[in-house]
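Hello Y.,

Per our agreement to keep a running log of every chain we model this quarter, I'm adding this entry. I've kept the format consistent with earlier entries: sequence first, then predicted structure.
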Amino acid sequence: MLRPSIAGWCLALWAALAATACGSTGERAGQRQAATTVAPAAAGDTARSDGAAAVADAFYRVHIDVRSGGLPEGETMQRYRPLLSKRLLALIADAARKRDAAIAAHPDEKPPFVDGDLFSTVYEGPTGYRIGKRTVSGPDRESFEVELSLKEPMSEESRWTDRALLLREDGQWKLDDIEYGGQFDFGQRGRLSDLLRSQS
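Predicted structure for the entry above:
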């Protein structure tokens, strides 16, 4: 049996430990509550950003994979189609009509939109990419700097930065245009939409 002085000391120690544990539990609960309060806003913002960034990333993954020159057609176009806005799809369709009309009218001449990478500054097209800085220009418009590179055998690597412009259309993010940013002597200038309209 514990003597009174020892028993009193033990009870006091037990009470102090219990109070400390309760305080720590309360602090942890408060921290969890604070985290729960902050998380939804942060998660919502990330989801909005990731939606547009994911589409930009998907577009360039397809583009690097197909590496086709001129206007996309057939199976290649089917891979691009879900990622492009209605406006850009209409511009591509109109450019295809101009190309076909030029072929019919001047079969011995080279028609427009039959070769070269239309979706980047460089004629040969990129072999690598990285989605960079995001810019928000409205609730349904975002753009991303896209760091592109071209590496071919027996040549030095070329690097440049284009900008992918995205539009939220019917609740889905779509690529709506591309700004050519490379500063090469024979590179594209302006925007993809301007290029597609250029043979009117």
